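Bench log. Compound arrived from synthesis this morning; before running ITC I wanted a structural hypothesis for how uridine-5'-diphosphate sits in the protein. Inputs:
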Amino acid sequence: MPKVLVTGGAGFLGSHLCERLVGQGHDVLCVDNYFTGSRSNIAHLIGNPRFEMMRHDVTFPLYVEVDQIYNLACPASPIHYQFDPVQTTKTSVHGAINMLGLAKRVKAKILQASTSEVYGDPEIHPQVESYWGHVNPVGVRSCYDEGKRCAETLFFDYWRQHGLKIKVVRIFNTYGPRMHPNDGRVVSNFIVQALGGNDITLYGDGSQTRSFCYVDDLIEAMIRTMNTPNDFTGPINIGNPREFTIRELAEQVVAMTRSRSRLVFAPLPSDDPRQRQPDISLARAVLGWEPTIDLRDGLERTISYFRGQLMAAAE
Ligand code: NAD
Ligand code: UDP
Ligand code: UDP
């Protein structure tokens, strides 16, 4: 079995990926600096002989021996990536250079966790991989969006220049257990607010849209992408094409938690994309994949996770 490195492995998506890979029989090396991830996300894997954890910041070189690299290290929520924007760009760009340098030395296959944010506030809908995006290079989201765009450039230049085996996945909004409760992302925010009986904060008028993918579906697509033939590089969209307004999401969370929370309106953050929906035709064709867990089902599992967390915190 290939030995796999997962950077950002103690984060939300990374921890699910490590778990799935260990379950498939891989030796997994998880690298994380715990900026937004936590030991508790991977606590259940510690002690498993196939799992190893290393505290390390990917902006510094890393010398290990692996066969595959999933590069997920990067804060993903606006609150976290805007906390230290210079470090966010460094993580995407220097982190990509180091992981690509590592992949080059050990001849590993390497997958980049890119994002729908490379499309910015899109002018075409739904978004296809051939769309180049509509991104503000000097705004508050730029450290993340442009950092990820530059990382994609580096991946494709290492592929063209050095013949690396690369895969680039563009992940659309994903949710599920182990999301950080205070990272400001909309699904975790609404659930935590609803369970606490607090106001549900809709930014703007709540008519902007997102398409939400449950984490298990996403991880399946990521692993399938890693295992595509070597001549397939992506970029490939992965996400759930079912689109909802943020207001619809709020109403669904309130109904499912039977909460008394009220919907309140707050200012829309700058550069907040108006609408977002992946075109997943390529993923359907190349991976034979499409999401299987609908929003209601995924929200149920996520609500039950946060309920458990809140109860544990209250004890
Ligand atoms: P997350 O914040 O939970 O995970 C990111 C992990 O990277 C954390 O464990 C963090 O501690 C670690 N990290 C950050 N900087 C690091 C550094 N310099 N060195 C080592 N580790 C570092 O976020 P997530 O939602 O799990 O996102 C994982 C990846 O997927 C990110 O690259 C993100 O951009 C991408 N992505 C996520 C989504 C989504 O909806 N969740 C959407 C698009 C793209
Ligand atoms: N690198 C790393 N681990 C390795 C090999 C390289 O972290 O096993 C880093 C190294 O620090 C370098 C970067 O990856 O700065 C890019 O490596 P590459 O070989 O592409 O370029 P160069 O070493 O010529 O700068
Ligand atoms: N949002 C909201 N209330 C919140 C958190 C987010 O209305 O408490 C909105 C936000 O303005 C955006 C959408 O929900 O339009 C998704 O936000 P998130 O930060 O989860 O993801 P992204 O904007 O990066 O897609």
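What the model suggests: The pocket of uridine-5'-diphosphate (ligand 2) is lined by residues 61-63, 97-98, 101-102, 104-105 (CB under 6 Å). The mean pLDDT is 97.
ITC booked for Thursday regardless.
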